[in-house]
């Protein structure tokens, strides 16, 4: 299933950390791309660097118009899921959402434009209490992929080896990647 995350409302001076975390969760939990509505080249470069070192096919790009991106997505046959506190409960929507491919998952910031509620195929409430958009995205993607995303092999230069007590990290050299 192709999943991209559209991040709305990014304010570079205020939101760089939380938007970075949206991108990290999008990548680690199975999305193939994050689209950033707005410009923040340092943030894009940072997420691209994570993908380069830790592996996977994750892409990041900035767009000037979220609306044009969402329209284009729908015209190409994609479906849109908007994560919000005010939507249909996640448990009531997930089976139908899982049957849709490709998916654009919209994650807002402080104030989401009303048009996104109209453009979305689903406005999904990941809980109905105030919480982080990072948490909402993680819960949504985990439910979407039924936890299988946590077992993905990213094939990166850096890999954490699970251990109950110790921190074990494998760092491969570039030459190792070329050989195997």
UniProtKB/TrEMBL annotation:
S-adenosyl-L-methionine binds at residues 83, 108-112, 126-133. Its EC number is 2.1.1.206. The keyword S-adenosyl-L-methionine applies. Its main location: cytoplasm. One of its GO terms (molecular function) is tRNA (cytidine(56)-2'-O)-methyltransferase activity. InterPro entries: Alpha/beta_knot_MTases (IPR029028), tRNA_m1G_MTases_N (IPR029026), tRNA_mtfrase_aTrm56 (IPR002845). Keywords: Cytoplasm, Methyltransferase, S-adenosyl-L-methionine, Transferase, tRNA processing. It is found in: Cytoplasm. It holds the Pfam family Trm56. It catalyses: cytidine(56) in tRNA + S-adenosyl-L-methionine = 2'-O-methylcytidine(56) in tRNA + S-adenosyl-L-homocysteine + H(+). It comes from the Archaea. GO terms for biological process: methylation. Homodimer. Belongs to the aTrm56 family. Specifically catalyzes the AdoMet-dependent 2'-O-ribose methylation of cytidine at position 56 in tRNAs. NCBIfam families: PRK03958.1 (NF003048). This is tRNA (cytidine(56)-2'-O)-methyltransferase. It comes from Candidatus Methanocrinis alkalitolerans.
């Amino acid at each position: 299933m192709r999943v991209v995350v559209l991040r709305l409302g990014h304010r570079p001076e205020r939101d760089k950390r939380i938007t970075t975390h949206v991108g990290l969760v999008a990548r680690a939990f199975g999305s193939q791309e994050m689209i950033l509505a707005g410009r923040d080249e340092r943030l894009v470069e940072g997420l691209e660097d994570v993908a380069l070192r830790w592996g996977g096919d994750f892409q990041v790009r900035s767009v000037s118009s979220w609306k044009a991106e969402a329209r284009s997505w729908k015209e190409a046959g994609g479906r849109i899921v908007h994560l919000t506190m005010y939507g249909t409960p996640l448990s009531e929507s997930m089976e139908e959402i899982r049957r849709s491919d490709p998916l654009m998952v919209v994650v807002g910031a402080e104030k989401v434009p009303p048009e996104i509620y109209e453009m979305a195929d689903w406005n999904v409430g990941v809980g109905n209490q105030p919480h982080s958009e990072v948490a909402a995205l993680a819960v949504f993607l985990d439910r979407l992929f039924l936890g299988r995303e946590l077992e993905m092999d990213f094939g990166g230069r850096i890999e954490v080896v699970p251990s109950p007590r110790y921190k074990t990290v494998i760092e491969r050299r570039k030459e190792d990647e070329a050989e195997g």
